[in-house]
Amino acid sequence: MPEGDTIHRLAGNLGPALTGASVRRLHVHRTPPTRIPSDVSIDEVWAVGKHLLVRFDTGHLLDSHLLMNGSWDLYRRGDRWRKSRGAMRAVIETDAVEAVLFSTPKVRLLHPRDPAPRPWDQLGPDLCLPDVDLDTATERARWLPADTEIAEVLLDQRPACGIGNVYKSETLWAERLHPTTPLGDVEDELLRRLYETASRLLRHNLDRSRRVTFRDGLAVYGRDRRVCPRCATPIRVTKQGGLGRVTYWCPTCQER
Question: Any catalytic annotation for residue 77?
Fold first, then answer.
């Protein structure tokens, strides 16, 4: 699924086109018409971890999470969509553009007085932000069971948000840490450094269409059986956790 840098970059693309504009039409999949505000304008578009949020001047919030297949496309008003209308999950139409959300079930419109929990409130510090609180991220990671594998710790968005499979793999390689190392075996200094490295890599790619974490590309992610750029050992890939999330790693540089 898209990682934090992708969602922040997406918010940066949608924001200038939508912020301050009056809304001609707002449609949200499976949302009763009574919940759709009328005669509204857009106050803000921003990202929190892997959530993309749109705030309207009525106080309503549109929350979307792209999961594996979702996408936001931006069109000039009246242009033909590049994807099926049956895959549409939300539309924000202004005088100039249409922002269309496709192919994700995770979208909802929140009323200002809606008691529904806001999932981003449970997230840790956003590693895509320049002033991210790494001490808080380190402290929150210690809330997890000590036998949690460190690769799973990095994917957990409650200590810190923004890391996915790519930055998990690249961060662990950069810090020479085996992905199955239990959290209890990782000292605070190293744990903080993992979040610091992940934050640096994420922020380095906020304005890039092609990710670069080492030299002119990626060090290990997606490079199964190709040689490690540091020691020339063939890179391996494994699946971890209940969801079987993939991790790429070097058995020499990241020896347990």
Answer: no
Chain segment 86-103, per-residue pLDDT in tens = 999 999 999 999 999 999
**pLDDT of res. 110:** 93
Is 225 a known active-site residue? no
Q: What is the pLDDT of residue 81?
A: 97
How much is the pLDDT for 33? Answer: 86
The whole-model pTM stands at: 0.93
Known catalytic residue at 9: no
Task: Measure the CA angle with vertex 107, ends 101 and 111; round to 5°.
Answer: 120
What lies within 8 Å, CB to CB, of 53 at 6+ separation is: 44, 45, 46, 47, 61, 62, 63, 64, 120
Catalytic residue among 9, 50, 108, 211: 50
pLDDT at 162: 97
Instruction: Supply 56's token pair.
Output: 């309207």
Give the pLDDT confidence score for residue 148 in this predicted structure: 97
Query: From the candidates 37, 196, 245, 251, which is the catalytic residue?
Result: 245
Residues of the chain under the 50 pLDDT cut: none
210 has catalytic annotation? no
